[in-house]
Amino acid sequence: MKLLPAVFCGVVVAGAVLVSPVVHADDQLAASMCDYVKADDKNRLRKVLSDYRLRLRNIYDGVTCNGDSLVRFAIRNNAADVGEFIVKQLPAAQVAASGDVAWAEGNGFAASPLLTVIKERAGGGE
């Protein structure tokens, strides 16, 4: 009888450790991040992530700037330095699946220097 509660406890603890919650950035933080991307200020973006102990890969999907993802917002604002930082913080599979290259080429941003970085990170270093 004592084995059942011990096994149950072990399963609960293991589940809590293995499931890491996605962190959602609040509106003020997201607005600051958008401002730093628009200003191409990689150092301030790094600092805000560090201050709040956030990993970009954990909050990336929850942050949009004027309806665009952070990478697309960087492309629109010609923010190559901060865009490269963002792309390098994301998993290669996520960069490859994002469709950012096709989006940029279809919206007149084919000459963006950030596209080279995206292609290299996605594994299609054309």
- Let me know the average pLDDT: 84
Number of helices: 9
**What would you call the shape?**
globular
Instruction: Name the helicity range.
Output: 55-70%
User: Radius of gyration from the CA trace?
Assistant: 19 Å
Distance between the termini: 63 Å
Task: Work out the number of β strands.
Answer: 0
Q: Which spans of ≥5 residues are poorly predicted at pLDDT below 50?
A: 11-25
Strand percent estimate: under 5%
* Main sheet: strands, sense, barrel: none
Q: Helices and strands, in N-to-C order?
A: HHHHHHHHH
How many structural domains can be distinguished in the coordinates? 1
Structural class: mainly alpha
Signal peptide: 1-25
Pfam family, one: DUF3718
Keywords: Signal
InterPro entries: DUF3718 (IPR022193)
Overview in brief:
This protein is mostly helical.
What would you note in describing this structure?
This protein is an all-alpha fold and 126 residues long. It has one domain (24-122). It contains nine helices and no strands.
Secondary structure blueprint with pairings:
Blueprint: H1 3-18, H2 27-38, H3 42-51, H4 56-59, H5 70-76, H6 80-89, H7 92-97, H8 100-106, H9 114-122
Q: Which characteristics define this entry?
A:
globular
